[in-house]
User: Which sequence fits this backbone?
């Protein structure tokens, strides 16, 4: 049976809350086939992100040349265990596993606040809000979160359809619970759409029908829904020329300011969601072409093929996939920051699917051979209300209670960063280091050995290295620094002594020598004869690749 049953609306006396259904109003899926398709969906995510990872954000607003694409090798299937495209959504699975489908949004927020991995964009803003006591849904509200339309929940919502075969309403409901931790408006709808794609993929193969089905789960007046309808229309008008349609996407959803409101540049959900659909539609059910086209569209070019391949591989099922995508997976290895290896991941998804099925009026049946089948009620999704990130509604004034704040326990510094600073720069301490860009020790970076990478905590709070030093009398004392910037970013270096600002210096392509390094000297003679606290601040100046790379810090008296 195809998902077209839902599109035709063959539902008698059914509401979103559930009621009695005629036998003809159920979709039926064997548990064996459910596991096979769900397993395929996870493999699709893994393959897509692994294949695209070397290209991520290296081509922005341009198509990746075909000869610059990596060549797929079966052993690449194990490159995804440390990918945030996977382990962040597994945080949500863990919350559901521990607390059940009806878990509150506040508990979801507490669990996300306690996550230990590095984050960026809307995820980082949302989690920072949660840790400050701003409870959901306000943690994702534009008043507190400058990135509400970012791609974050879009790349993390795959789980919501993989545990809800044929139940698009579940993708809507889980979006309201987990997507609002970090997103709002189109940023929320993007994840609900992706979840609904997966829910439909258990019963429908045709990519156009999948997109037409899933878009019904989000507000029809949203810009995201408009994008989906555009992609379907453009594909139908020119189904053999994806590059021409890519240009249409750029013209409308990148260059037109009306579609860039509340956008955070290249990680806007609409343009990256368009690239997911580009792969699904123009790939025409070919696994390699689906991944390659979605990846070659550029921007977040590992997340997008991960979602496109995840949906496609769900329609195909693990058992029918080409062996190059299914052999060699290390099933004993755990995904970073999770409790799951691959078999445990599949088991928890089946466990949750059974719970959700019962919760939404379905049942498990057995045939004459004793084989189990899911009987899934055909219930159309009821979309969330329309919200605009650039003209948001009122906040909920939601704050965690003192008791809830006591449950939020996290290491305020990324793992290993204190040890890296102590090893390379003895006597110096670090504070307000954010998790973005994987802070820590670099054995070698841009030609220098033993470099410490740090990152600002948030868009206002710089990362600070601090130390109290004794400045001798009668001698010239100088603070000497060698600091670098990421090739794609810059920041402001601020040097303070006892809270007095001695230097504020941009560190970026316009100020650094070849190799992205800047060497500086700061005279400390004014503090001769006493102890002084020095603060070296990696201060954000635009929130784009703002890591600082410390190669040398020395106080020299002559």
Assistant:
């Amino acid at each position: 049976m195809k998902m077209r049953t839902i599109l035709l609306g063959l539902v008698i006396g059914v509401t979103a809350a559930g009621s009695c259904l005629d036998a003809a109003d159920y979709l039926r899926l064997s548990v064996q086939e459910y596991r096979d398709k769900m397993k395929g969906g996870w493999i699709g995510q893994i393959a897509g992100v692994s294949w695209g990872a070397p290209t991520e954000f290296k081509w922005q607003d341009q198509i990746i040349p075909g000869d610059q694409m990596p060549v797929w090798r079966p052993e690449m299937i194990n490159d995804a265990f440390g990918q945030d495209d996977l382990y962040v959504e597994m945080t949500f699975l863990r919350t559901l596993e521990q607390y059940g489908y009806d878990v509150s949004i506040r508990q979801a927020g507490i669990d996300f606040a306690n996550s230990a991995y590095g984050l960026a964009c809307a995820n980082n803003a949302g989690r920072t809000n949660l840790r400050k006591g701003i409870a959901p849904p306000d943690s994702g509200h534009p008043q507190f979160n400058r990135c509400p339309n970012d791609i974050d929940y879009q790349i993390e919502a795959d789980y919501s359809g993989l545990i809800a075969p044929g139940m698009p309403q579940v993708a809507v409901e889980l979006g309201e619970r987990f997507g609002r931790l970090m997103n709002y408006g189109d940023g929320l709808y993007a994840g609900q759409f992706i979840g609904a794609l997966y829910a439909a993929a258990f019963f429908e193969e045709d990519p156009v029908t999948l997109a037409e089905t899933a878009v019904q789960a989000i507000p029809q007046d949203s810009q995201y829904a408009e994008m989906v309808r555009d992609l379907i229309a453009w594909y139908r008008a020119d189904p053999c020329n994806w590059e021409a349609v890519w240009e249409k996407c750029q013209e409308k959803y990148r260059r037109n300011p009306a579609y860039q409101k509340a956008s955070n540049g290249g990680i806007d959900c609409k343009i990256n969601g368009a690239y997911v659909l580009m792969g699904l539609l123009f790939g025409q059910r070919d696994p390699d072409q689906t991944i390659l086209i979605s990846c070659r569209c550029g921007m977040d070019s590992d997340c997008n093929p991960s979602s496109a391949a995840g949906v496609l591989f769900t329609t195909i099922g693990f058992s029918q996939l080409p062996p190059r995508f299914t052999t060699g997976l290390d099933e004993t290895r755990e995904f970073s920051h999770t409790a799951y290896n691959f078999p445990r991941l599949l088991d928890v998804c089946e466990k949750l699917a059974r719970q959700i099925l019962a919760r939404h009026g379905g049942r498990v049946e057995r045939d004459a051979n004793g084989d189990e089948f899911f009987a899934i009620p055909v219930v159309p999704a009821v979309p969330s209300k329309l919200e605009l990130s650039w003209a948001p509604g009122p906040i909920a004034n939601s704050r965690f209670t003192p008791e809830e704040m006591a449950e939020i326990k996290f290491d305020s510094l990324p793992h290993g960063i204190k040890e890296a600073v102590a090893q390379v720069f003895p006597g110096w301490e670090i504070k307000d280091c954010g998790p973005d860009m994987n802070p820590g020790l670099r054995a070698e970076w841009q030609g220098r050995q033993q470099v410490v990478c740090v990152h600002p905590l948030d868009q206002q709070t710089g990362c600070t290295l601090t130390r109290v030093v004794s400045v001798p009398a009668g001698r010239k004392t100088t603070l000497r620094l060698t600091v670098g910037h990421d090739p794609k970013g810059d920041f402001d270096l601020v040097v303070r002594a006892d809270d007095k600002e001695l230097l504020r210096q941009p560190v970026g392509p316009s100020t650094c020598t070849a190799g992205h390094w800047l060497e500086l000297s700061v005279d400390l003679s004014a503090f001769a004869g006493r102890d002084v606290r020095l603060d070296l601040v990696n201060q954000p100046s635009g929130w784009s690749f703002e890591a600082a790379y410390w190669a040398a810090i020395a106080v020299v008296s002559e």
About this structure: The chain has two domains: 34-351, 417-557.
